[in-house]
Every structure is written in C-alpha cells, then in structure tokens.
Amino acid sequence: MNLAGYVALTRQSGLLKEMQSVANNIANLSTTGFRREGVLFAEHLRMLPLEGGAVAMTEARGRWTDAGQGALVQTGGALDLAIEGEGFFRVLTPGGERLTRAGAFTRNGEGEVVAMDGHPLLDEGGGPILIPFEAQAISVASDGTLSVDGEPAALIGLVTVEDATKLFRETGTLFRYEAEPMPMEGGRLVQGFLEQSNVNAVAEMTRMIAVQRAYEYGQKLMDQEDERIRLVVRTIGVRA
Q1: Are strands 113-115 and 138-140 parallel, antiparallel or unpaired?
Q2: SS (H, E, C) the chain
Q3: pTM for this model (two decimals)
Q4: Considering only CA atoms, which of 10, 69, 61 is closest in space to residue 34?
Q5: Model confidence pLDDT, tens digit, residues 149-172
Q6: Same domain, yes or no, for 82 and 183?
Q7: Same domain, yes or no, for 124 and 167?
C-alpha cells in the first residue's frame, strides 16, 4: 500500500470508531442516567524528504463524555432519585466501587437499596443502605438524608471526581475512577424523579449522516487511488 492509501486508511479507521460511538449514543436514548460520548482524534505529522513536503495521519486516541445534565422526568417512585447538578451515586459492583448517574433504585430480598442491575447503593461511609420491608414511608431530602417512617436512616453518598481525565466509562452508565472521589458539595437530590439520557436524537442522527458521508468519500478516494496505481502498472508494463 502506498502513502496515500495509509493516510486514507487511518481516516477510515477513525471514522469507524466515530460511527460506533454515535450508534451507541442512539441505542441509549432512553437509558436512565446515560451520558453521551464522543471520540478524540490525534493528528500525527511527519516531514517528507522533499522541500515543503509533509504527511498527516489521524488516530482515534480515546473517548470523551458529555457531562451535560439530562432532563428530569417525574415518576413518583419512592426510590427513584435524580441528581441536580454535578455528582454521582456510589454503587458496589463485583469489580469494586463504581459511580453512576442512573438513579432508579429498588430493594433486594435482604432489604438493601440496589440499582436495577443489583448493585447496592452506598451511603456516605461506603456501606449498603437497608430499609425494613415493614416501612410505611420512605423519604429522601435534597441533601441525601434518607428517612424511614419519619426517622433518619442513612445519608446517601454523593461524590464527584475533580479531575475528569481520571474518570472512565466502564459499561453503559457505570464509571470507574483512578482518583479518589470527593464528597459532593452543593449537589441536590430530587425524590420521585429520574434523569434521562442527555443524548440529543436530532443532533446524533445529523452526526451519523455526516460521518457516513465522510466514510463514503474516503472509500471513494481509496478506490480512485487503487485505480490510479493499476493504470500506472499497466502503462509501464505495456511500454516495457
């Protein structure tokens, strides 16, 4: 493959990853607490042994997450919680503690408050939150204080990661961190509401069309370059 082919191939590879990101966003339009993601590209420049000559190649080096607030939708569920502003819930998974914005919680057979995937919600001290099944009333204050039948029972732990580069999407709405999360100050919990995905359907469809057209143009360029090389080979072969 010649130089032009390598340049086009790096572009196509990056566009493929961009399309995968767009498709994942669209697939999660209705996922509670989902945050839109995109692809970060890096450009590599190299001088050529010609005066004023240079070549540039691109590479999809990583992904970024849109931290924008999703819309809050009222559900009325006692354990449906939404965070206004920044911050995350802490949940315990088999792989360790993770952070999430998905606030649809319920109770398991032991009375623990858990996410829909079964991961226990953690309190301020990092322990599970228990609610007796005989409880008549469950209320959650804006500061995260969970009360059962009028008596405070736990303080839901809201945290934030100051350095966004130390926060990594693991699966869907779960994030792992490399920097110790800090207690969230100023965060506000809203009971009976859920935060929807922050994906804009129209914007993502527009983005998908743009990426698809760019990919098709890149493929056309590679086909034309391949035909040019074939023509050169045939011409040289005839003259030889």
Answers
A1: unpaired
A2: CCHHHHHHHHHHHHHHHHHHHHHHHHHCCCCCCCCCEEEEEEEEEEECCCCCCEEEEEEEEEEEECCCCCCEEECCCCCEEEEECCCEEEEEECCEEEEECCCEEEECCCCEEEECCCCEEEECCCCECECCCCCCCEEECCCCEEEECCEEEEEECEEECCCHHHEEEEECCEEEECCCCEECCCCEEEECEEECCCCCHHHHHHHHHHHHHHHHHHHHHHHHHHHHHHHHHHHHHHHC
A3: 0.80
A4: 69
A5: 999 999 998 999 888 888 889 888
A6: yes
A7: yes
Where is the domain boundary, 162, 178, 195?
195
Q: Looking at residue 59, what is its pLDDT?
A: 67
The pLDDT tens digits of the residues spanning 36-76 come to 998 876 665 666 666 556 666 666 667 888 989 999 999 99
Question: Pairing between strand 182-183 and 167-171?
Answer: unpaired
My answer on whether 89 and 144 are in the same domain is: yes
Closest C-alpha to 71, from 198, 216, 181? 198
If one counts the domains in the chain, the total is 2
Q: Are 93 and 162 in the same domain? A: yes
Nearest alpha-carbon partner for 158 in 130, 191, 183: 183
Same domain, 49 and 118: no
- 190, 83: one domain: yes
Range of the domain at 170: 72-195
The structure tokens listed for 107 are 């109770």
Alpha carbons 100 and 172: distance in angstroms, whole number: 9
